[in-house]
Amino acid sequence: MQGKGIVICLPADIDTDVVIAGRYLRTKDRSIWITHVFEDLDPSLAPRLKGAVIVAGRNFGCGSSREQAAIAIREAGVVAVIAPSFARIFFRNAINIGLPLIEADLTCEEGSTVMFDISEGWVETDGERHTIHPLSPRMQEILKAGGLVEFWRTHP
Amino acid sequence: MSTLSERILGAVAGEYVDRKVDRAYAHDGTGVLALEAWKNMGGHRLGKKSEYYIQFDHIAPANNSTTATLQHELRDFATRSRMHFSDVGCGICHQLMSEGTVLPGEIVVGADSHSTTPGAFGAFATGVGATDMAAIWLTGETWFRVPESVGVNLTGRFGGAAEAKDLALTCVGRLGMDGAIYQALEFVGEDAHNLTIDERLVLSNMSVEVGAKAGLFYADEVTVRYLKERGHDVVPQVPEPCTYRQELDIDLADVVPLIAVPHRVDTVKPVEVLAGLSLDQVFVGTCTNGRYSDLARFARLVKGRKVAVRTIVIPASAAILKKAIRTGVLADIVEAGCTIGTPGCGPCIGYHMGVLGEGEVCLSTANRNFKNRMGVGGEIYLGSVATAAASALAGEIASPEAA
Fold it and tell me: Does residue B80 sit in helix, strand or coil?
């Protein structure tokens, strides 16, 4: 699974409350989550997420189990999130809804281009290739299927 | 030799395993998305292996018709599919699972991050998101990476006004918000057995605030007695020597009343440092500190006096509310000028029943103080029940040592 995108840098310990605030959760209308994603962190972020790769600090996605956080990031057009570590529920949620996550400790350069190949296990920035911590075989299967819903639909 | 997590999951740390889930629960927040995912997976009947629970606690009762409509659909599904269903007012999912449902040695999964709570009974209890829950509804099982464990060695006894919440904040302050990421906390040590079930639940509950997957106590005589009173005969789990990834030693006598300041749970300060900070609201409740012992302690401290700031008290379950009515605890709280909410999560997640306005400051007994969580522009300080009582009486942050 390959991809590339323009880097947006975020700090460590991004909690899911600032990814999508509780006040926007009581709906199944995904356009609301796309509009308000990261609103409490930086209201200017949402329109810049299409084609972006988020490069964040440690413990990305901590706090609430709200899956709308992963959905909002994906639906806003983010290609992948790269961080040295992810909160574990967010980790599972993201893979389950088909948002690629990459565990790697990169120096973040806003606006640079990053490329990755999750199956081969690398990420490349500024012509420099880094090895990434591989996803478990099960998570790779789920991601390859496009998420856990697709996985179970095709593995009855 | 195994950690308790390894023993329950039946494999060594680092391994990936598929396991039957003994009990799976979801609430009105995560249940709605889980139902959508389950339908999309082609689900038409529940997996046979698990006991399934839906509890309405996050926006209960519903705050508007959109919420009510979503809840109506989920309620209908839960009752038609014969899940154990707890409607509006029954209480917070984690508390309901902890009133004689979860048993030692079980694997329990909740669609909520604070599903670490029932780990207090020697169960492996952890949180997932909605789609994982949907897959559990489908199959009755899920995959786990068996975690390494952090041994939290508890010795001594609380002195002064310190309580379990201050101990939890001590752990979070020392480990940091990602200090136990992908790991489990195991609360051990020669004096762990002195903690009551209510105290253990506070620690297991807040384990997720350091990134932990679970927060476990070994079932001991205290656990056996608690479950016996609720109709279950269980035996204690005997600890065996094992290797922890890291160890944290805490002498309870060194624990002092603490407050986590906005917007991080791991930024903790002694209450005295913040004394005098003006408050707009005090909130006592949640899956951390809304139990009967919390309400009783709060009532003891405010009885016969008047709070100086709006104070919202919300029991974590209907059973707690009933007991507080029976014993007069509730009357003492109301006489002191506090108001009472429907058992459930209350304003903790910023939906209803005490949402903060721009610039408002709240002292809360909850577990999270993330930016805007209880309302846009509101600031959340997290503290113990005793700190909440002292502060409610003063109208500003005040040390419980003086109360």
Answer: helix
Cβ–Cβ under 8 Å, residues B361 and B379: yes
- Does residue B202 have a pLDDT over 90? yes
- State the residue range of the domain holding B193: 149-254
Q: Which residue has the tokens 């996985």?
A: A151
| Residue B7 counted as domain residue | no
The 8-class DSSP code of residue B13 comes to T
* Residue B338: how many other CB atoms lie within 10 Å: 22
In what helix (H) or strand (E) does residue B306 lie, and over which residues does it extend?
Answer: none
Same domain, B49 and B108: yes
Confidence of residue B49 (pLDDT cuts 50, 70, 90): confident
d(Cα B304, Cα B6) in Å, to the nearest integer? 50
Are B224 and B237 within 8 A, CB to CB? no
Encoding tokens for residue B113? Answer: 């991050």
Chains A & B: contacts with CB separation below 8 Å = 127
Residues B185 and B117 in one domain: no
The secondary structure element, H or E, covering residue B95 is helix B93-97
DSSP state string for A70-106: HHHHHHTT--EEEES-B-HHHHHHHHHTT--EEE---
Q: Is the pTM of this model over 0.90?
A: yes
Q: Is the same domain home to B266 and B384?
A: yes
CB of A153 closer than 8 Å to CB of A105: no
The answer to whether the Cβ–Cβ distance between B181 and A87 falls below 8 Å is yes
Tell me which chain B residue has its CA closest to the CA of residue A66. Answer: B129
- Residue B403 resides in a domain: no
Residue B402 lies in a domain: no
Does residue B132 lie within any of the structural domains? yes
B248-272 as b/e: b if 16+ CB within 10 A: bebebeebbbbbbbbbbbbbbeebe
pLDDT at res. A133: 86
**Class of the domain covering A2-154:** alpha beta
Eight-class DSSP state of B207: G
pLDDT of residue A150: 97
Q: ∠ CA(B140), CA(B146), CA(B151), 5° rounding?
A: 125
| Amino acid identity at A54 | I
Strands (E), B135-274: 141-145, 149-155, 184-188, 214-217, 246-251, 258-260, 268-270
Render B348-392 in DSSP notation, one character per residue.
GGSSSSSPPPTT-EEEESSS---TTTTSTT-EEEE--HHHHHHHH
Contacts 24+ apart (CB under 8 A), A131-138: A131/A104, A132/A102, A132/A103, A132/A104, A133/A103, A133/A104, A135/A95, A135/A101, A136/B16, A136/B145, A137/B16, A138/B16, A138/B143
Alpha carbons B54 and B97: distance in angstroms, whole number: 11
Environment class of residue B276 by beta-carbon count within 10 Å: exposed (0-12), middle (13-18) or buried (19+)? Answer: exposed
Asked if the Cβ–Cβ distance from A148 to B16 is below 8 Å, we say: no
Interface test with B, best of A67, A138, A150 (most B CBs within 10 A): A67
**Total tally of structural domains belonging to chain B:** 3
Do the Cβ atoms of A66 and B371 come within 8 Å? no
What ipTM does the predicted assembly reach? 0.96
- On the question of pLDDT at B146 being above 60, the answer is yes
Rounded Cα distance between A99 and A94, Å, is 5
Enter the tokens of residue B289. Answer: 């500190």
